[in-house]
Amino acid sequence: MRNRIFTIATESNGGIKAVVETYLTSNVYQYYKHKWIVSHNSSSFFKRQLLFVRSILDTLINSFKGGSIFHIHMAMKGSFYRKIILVSICKLFNNKVILHLHGSEFEVFYKSANILTKRLIKFNFELSDKVLVLSESWAIFVKKTSPKADVSIINNYVNPIKFFKIENNNVDEFNLLFLGALGKRKGIYDLLRAISNLKNKKIILHCCGDGELEEVKNLAVNLGLKNKIIFHGWVDGDDKEYLLNKCDMFVLPSYNEGLPMAILEAMSIGKCVLSTYVGGIPEVIKNKVNGLLIEAGDIKALESSLAFGIENSNGIINELGEQGRLSYLKLYSPDVVIPKLHKIYRELNEKD
Question: Is the domain of 232 the same as that of 314?
Answer without folding.
Answer: yes
